[in-house]
């Protein structure tokens, strides 16, 4: 057996501990598969004294995380997090030192992926990040290699487990968002400051990486239009169900002549679509290719075990000498595309208004839709809330998104509306 | 750009034509991803004069397929089929000539995979077969690389699109097997001699490859217990639905201390399981790993486009210099395991009897179950057929399979039974 692949591990939180535990548990099997042992030799984290449930004395402890780049290792694994700061410094110094770099850090890659991919190519080393998207699900590999023969027409999926946990619990139990969020926080499924997850930022980071891999474009996180699930009501989920849909927060990207389209938004997913059956904290990604058709990758989107599985899969690739290009092609071959105009897209929409219970409201909404050229497929008005407000939900026929935006613009400031309308796209 | 990867293509049927069409259509994109162009230079098939809808004059024509191994190429792609004969000769001579070999031939690999993997290692070339299992779905890569950090506890899935097409049509339309098979044959979804598909042989070939990849065992096709869907009635599907299940032909493999368990059999799949929602000719494979949990890979299981996508994905890997071990580890590291004793397995079962409509039948069945120690969870008896026979369907509590086998043995030859009982396992 050839000599071990030597690893430095930065960050000893849940995932870092999972990586150590995984290599302890499956080490012999992994050595058979990788052709050589994979050995952690140096570690670094903020707090040396913390009990992590595994013997840490066997590893060299490095106080300064960024100094791991100078350790006598082949690969640095970064599980520190943060789009800049120590993680980015470590990435740059590791690649500059001619060592491979493995990370789960979607935020850093969304912002600095192109620079880091160039640095890895210059050094002739690997930059790998399977754990950055969809946890344990090998979807980065699926796009970079498995679907590599295809022009990808569209990539989309459930990229945030916290949101899917909340939405599927709202669906199963008929409860409202705030209520379920509080429970998710108590259970540890949502952060005490949940904004990153529930407002779609985390999914947007991941989507920008998937889009780059799928379309051969430079990661363009700044062009992702992101919205979250804060404003989805239990009543919206019930209306959707009555119409044959489930509500899911989807990240969706398409490349076209008009530019790169990237959006994170709550969608209505037909029950006949596999994503409608993805519940709980599971992640799932669909890639549609011009030869392969629709591919689906699904599994646990977070957690120490799945994420460690993805990190170590990258290490096995590196141990096998399979470095691959970080974004599926050389960094200089990635094109810079501007954002597509969402108004040009055609689709069906669900628009829900909370309205005052008074004469003429429906006529006002219907007139705004008509004047903007929006064709209504169905309209539901349901009971009155305790506060006297009423829900009106509309499903449109297929048409340009611009028309729906114009209709909503016409209704802005109307005394008939209570709060903002909720616009969800229907996955077609 | 470095020099092209030169390909010889054996077999110009549907898939071979798809590979040519794919490289014609996506060639520039593939060259960006692979780092070099992929070029077919030589081809061979039975009939030179046949019109294949693409210009064949640009390729060197080789009359003797097995002579392609001597062509001036880097890789031979075999799409001839057959477990032995020209395909096997070509595989052996290609690898012996120090060229990489890509194939969609599950039957050949199920029978000769170990020998060919050894030959590829000896020659230091690649042996790749993504297209051999689940068409365009990158599940070979998913197991060999994506899930490589895990001890795989179980691998199972819908491996035959023809059977899934038939079962889901029976389910949707309440029609019986023979009727739907005839339609599938008319539509070209089933062969005129459909036995290979509907009796589970094709799925068994694929399962033996998945099991080897998942468990680090030598491919052991001879140890797969295979049954098909011939004896599934529309009434069975209806009973299953009433109980919250869908009927799917699953290949399922597990490794344990008692040996390697491999079975292709119709199963009851709970509607809460993603495989219950896989309809039509789609394939889907689940791998359960000790760290990653449950991974699902899903997509088109056949057809020229998806299969060509998988073949060319293998070629891109080879163009990138990523050869990998054929069965996820060196051939000599694969262990030889005997078959596990199915009787030792514990599970729940669906057993359906067609019975004569007369006094005492239920008592006889119930007594046989009791005497074999089978605990009955539910029993349904439904109406009489035109021929006077009646269906009795039983769902058992969890118990050893041996007990169910013993109960059926006790009832063998009973005058109360019309034809063979149907035993389906319930996916747990």
Automatic annotation (TrEMBL), chains A, B:
L-homoserine binds at residue 191. The active site is at residue 206. Its EC number is 1.1.1.3. Coiled coil: none annotated. GO terms for molecular function: homoserine dehydrogenase activity; NADP binding. NADPH binds at residue 106. Keywords: Amino-acid biosynthesis, Methionine biosynthesis, NADP, Oxidoreductase, Threonine biosynthesis. The keyword Cell inner membrane does not apply. PROSITE patterns: ACT (PS51671), HOMOSER_DHGENASE (PS01042). InterPro entries: ACT-like_dom_sf (IPR045865), ACT_dom (IPR002912), Asp/hSer_DH_NAD-bd (IPR005106), HDH (IPR016204), HDH_cat (IPR001342), HDH_CS (IPR019811), NAD(P)-bd_dom_sf (IPR036291). Residues 350-420 form the ACT domain. NADP(+) binds at residues 10-17. Transmembrane segments: none annotated. One of its GO terms (biological process) is methionine biosynthetic process. It holds the Pfam family Homoserine_dh. Pathway: Amino-acid biosynthesis; L-threonine biosynthesis; L-threonine from L-aspartate: step 3/5; Amino-acid biosynthesis; L-methionine biosynthesis via de novo pathway; L-homoserine from L-aspartate: step 3/3. It comes from the Bacteria. PANTHER family: HOMOSERINE DEHYDROGENASE (PTHR43331:SF1). Belongs to the homoserine dehydrogenase family. This is Homoserine dehydrogenase. It comes from Sphingomonas glacialis.
């Amino acid at each position: 057996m050839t000599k071990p692949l030597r690893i430095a591990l930065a960050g000893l939180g849940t995932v870092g501990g999972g990586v150590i535990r995984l290599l302890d548990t499956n080490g012999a099997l992994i050595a058979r598969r990788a052709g050589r042992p994979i050995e952690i030799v140096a570690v670094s984290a903020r707090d040396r004294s913390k009990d992590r449930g595994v013997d840490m004395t066997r590893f060299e402890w490095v106080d300064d995380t960024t100094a791991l780049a100078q350790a006598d290792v082949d690969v640095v694994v970064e599980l520190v997090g943060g789009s800049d700061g120590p993680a980015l410094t470590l990435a740059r110094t590791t690649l500059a030192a001619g060592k491979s770099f493995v990370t789960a850090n979607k935020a850093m890659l969304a912002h600095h992926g192109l620079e880091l991919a160039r640095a890895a190519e210059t050094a002739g080393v690997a930059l790998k990040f399977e754990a950055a998207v969809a946890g344990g699900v090998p979807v980065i590999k699926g796009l970079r290699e498995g679907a590599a023969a295809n022009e990808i027409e569209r990539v989309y999926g459930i990229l945030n487990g916290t949101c899917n946990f909340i939405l599927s619990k709202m669906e199963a139990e008929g409860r409202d968002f705030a209520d379920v969020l509080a429970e998710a926080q108590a259970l540890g499924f949502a952060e005490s400051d949940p904004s990153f997850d529930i407002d779609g930022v985390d999914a947007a980071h991941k989507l920008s990486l998937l889009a780059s891999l799928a379309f051969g474009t430079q990661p363009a996180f700044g062009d992702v239009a992101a919205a979250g699930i804060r404003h989805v009501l239990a009543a919206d989920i019930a209306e959707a169900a009555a119409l044959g849909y489930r509500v899911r927060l989807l990240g969706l990207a398409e490349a076209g002549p008009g530019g790169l389209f990237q959006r994170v938004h709550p969608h209505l997913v037909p029950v006949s679509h596999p994503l409608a059956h993805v519940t709980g904290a599971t992640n799932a990604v669909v890639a549609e290719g011009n030869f392969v058709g629709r591919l689906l990758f699904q599994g646990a989107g977070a957690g120490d075990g799945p994420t460690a599985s993805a990190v170590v899969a990258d290490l096995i690739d590196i141990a096998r000498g399979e470095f691959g290009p970080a974004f599926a092609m050389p960094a200089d071959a990635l094109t810079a595309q501007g954002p597509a105009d969402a108004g040009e897209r055609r689709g069906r929409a669900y628009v829900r208004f909370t309205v005052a219970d008074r004469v003429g409201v429906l006529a006002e909404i219907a007139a705004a839709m008509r004047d903007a050229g929006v064709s209504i497929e169905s309209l539901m008005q349901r009971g009155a809330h305790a506060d006297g407000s009423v829900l009106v939900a509309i499903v449109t026929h297929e048409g340009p998104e611009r028309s729906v935006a114009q209709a909503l613009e016409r209704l802005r400031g109307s005394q008939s509306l209570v709060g903002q309308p909720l616009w969800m796209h229907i996955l077609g």
